[in-house]
Design brief:
The structure is a single chain. The chain has about 130 residues and is an all-beta fold. Helices cover about 0% and strands about 50% of the residues. It is built from no helices and 13 strands. The strands form three sheets. Strands 2, 4, 5, 6, 9, 12 and 13 form a seven-stranded mixed beta sheet that branches. Strands 1-3-8-7 form a four-stranded antiparallel beta sheet, with no helix packed on it. A two-stranded antiparallel sheet has the order 10-11. The model has no long low-confidence stretch (mean pLDDT about 95).
Length: about 130
């Protein structure tokens, strides 16, 4: 019965930074896959970053080098540090969790899979020019 709650969204100017947090309540499994997705208005949800149990990460090309996904297992918290934000980053951001773990392709957790078991409610990020 894992529940996820995101926070940290807001409005920033292009070039600014935000740090999103996702607290997992309940009893999340250590052998889990966690990810950040985003969904612009009237657009499809897309994977931004994913992290597996051992901390192996993968990023969408559009955010690589600017965003960092991290987790603090002791606090049951997932983070997304977003730097050098661009207007194209504006979206609702969701964290997601799956107890079965990530699918690893060539050693990296896959961004293709979207069928996560649990989702947060989302937090809005708005980047202005």
């Amino acid at each position: 019965q894992v529940q996820l709650k995101e926070s940290g969204g807001g409005s920033v100017q292009a070039g600014g930074s935000l740090r999103l947090s996702c607290v997992a309540s309940g009893n999340p499994a250590r052998s889990s896959c966690m990810a950040w997705f985003r969904q612009p208005p009237n657009n499809e949800r897309e994977a931004v970053a994913v992290i597996d149990l051992d901390g192996t990460t993968n990023y969408a090309g559009s955010v690589k080098g600017r965003f960092t996904i991290a987790k603090d297992n002791a606090k049951n918290t997932l983070y997304l540090e977003m730097n050098d934000l661009k207007t194209e980053d504006s979206a609702m951001y969701f964290c997601a969790y799956d107890p079965w773990g990530c699918t690893l392709i060539n050693g990296s957790p896959s961004l293709v899979n979207t069928d996560y078991r649990h989702w947060g409610q989302g937090t809005q990020v708005t980047v202005s020019a």
